[in-house]
Design a protein that fits this description.
Shape: globular
Number of strands: 8
Distance between the termini: 65 Å
Length: about 400
């Protein structure tokens, strides 16, 4: 009797990934079938999105009393990895909705009820998007080129332009930040949610990118958009510590987006392995490409790199779920996990392309798309420069 093949535990198709899954293999197969078409046509993943909505994926992390599934961070991270393995752009786009729901849920479970309205909205079907990217802002959440002007009756008026607004065709509420300069000596960063139908909100269709094209990450323009006080979720002094809700964004966004890029790399390496065991070679008559020492070495090195990234991501998520106390090192640790995961993913995809050879750059080959999709990982905030700056300053004790 032939023994069952051993599946690498880091693979999204491993039995270990079956705990707490929301998406069926049949659904993932459909997403995979549609991915190439979305990419070719630069089309939004509309069919995937409706399937995800129907499966309860958009409410996966929120508590059952709000209509959610109560999925913890670890289980959701592994689901994102599974989804990205088959449909990277779909996983990345929905990530921009999920990372709002996680910190909101975490605060609610700690007894903070001021964001209950947001859980009610998501439970009723609202789709969230991220309005943090801005042209010319290389500091991310630490500053903003969008103005936030206090209103006499409370709340703020936002004016600015947000880039990379994934889910542009379907979002209902945009989480954003802006700068309040009403006191020049003490500028503040204001975090709030804007409704799509608010006067002054418009979408500019500019998305036609190298990779993850199905995300439909168009620009959002804000022209004197009024936001009431009850939709302002946090205010912090410029350069000051992150409020709990903002810190929570990092604790959900970074592990989830890291697992998206891990899923891309795992898929690319699996494709390279499959091609190697099928592809013949004139150099070794009667054998396959997999028997070449150079190929074995490349695959071995890529597996080691992926295993290290997988271990780091699993540990980071486990520590978050266990409420490990790393003090001021928490954010740098998550930055490091994201940087290592996405840089490793890029290296592994490059190896996969080398192993498969020239056919991998054909538009007919899935690897050609994965090669492009993985390139966007280093562009997601925080980028490499920001990561090294934060980690270096933390290690040297240079933060106030």
């Amino acid at each position: 009797m032939t023994a069952a093949p051993i599946v690498n535990p880091s693979s999204p198709v491993s039995p270990a990934a079956e705990k707490g899954v929301l998406l069926t293999d049949a659904q993932l197969a459909r997403f995979h079938e549609r991915a190439a078409g979305y990419d070719r046509d630069n089309a939004f993943f509309a069919e995937d999105f409706e399937e995800l909505r129907a499966a309860g994926y958009l409410v996966a992390p929120i508590p059952p009393e709000f209509g959610g599934r109560g999925l913890p961070l670890g289980a959701l991270a592994r689901e994102q990895r599974r989804l990205a393995y088959w449909a990277p752009a779909t996983a990345l786009a929905v990530n921009m909705h999920l990372y709002w729901t996680g910190p909101t849920t975490a605060l609610y479970r700690r007894g903070e009820t001021t964001l209950r309205w947001l859980l009610d909205a998501v439970g009723s079907g609202a789709v969230l998007a991220a309005g943090h990217g801005e042209p010319g802002n290389d500091l991310g959440l630490d500053d903003s080129l969008t103005s936030a002007v206090p209103r006499p009756e409370g709340g703020y008026t936002f004016t600015g332009r947000k880039t990379f607004t994934s889910l542009s065709p379907v979002w209902d509420k945009l989480g954003l930040h802006g700068r309040d300069d009403s006191d020049p000596d003490r500028p503040k960063i204001v975090h709030a949610f804007v409704d799509r139908d608010s006067p002054g909100v418009s979408t500019v269709p500019v998305w036609d990118a190298l990779g993850v094209r199905a995300t439909a990450s168009d620009d959002t323009v804000l022209e004197s958009v009024a936001v009431p006080a009850e939709r302002v979720v946090a205010v912090q002094e410029l350069g000051g510590p992150y409020p709990p809700f903002v810190a929570g964004i990092f604790q959900w966004y970074l592990p989830l987006v890291s697992n998206v890029y891990f899923g891309i790399a795992r898929r690319a390496l699996d494709l390279a392995i499959q091609a190697s065991v099928r592809r013949g070679t004139l150099a070794l008559p009667g054998r396959t490409h997999a028997h070449k020492p150079a190929v074995q070495r490349q695959i071995g090195q890529a597996e080691i790199a992926l295993d290290a990234a997988w271990s780091l991501l699993e540990k980071a998520v486990a520590d978050l779920e266990d409420s490990a106390d790393y003090g001021r090192w928490w954010t740098p640790r998550l930055f490091a996990a994201k940087e290592f995961a996405v840089s490793t993913a890029k290296q592994v995809v490059d190896v996969a392309v080398q192993v498969v050879g020239a056919s991998s750059v054909s538009k007919r080959h899935e690897l050609e798309r994965l090669y492009r999709d993985v390139r966007t990982g280093s562009l997601h905030p925080p980028n490499s420069d920001a990561v090294l700056d934060v980690i270096g300053r933390t290690a040297l004790g240079l933060f106030p």
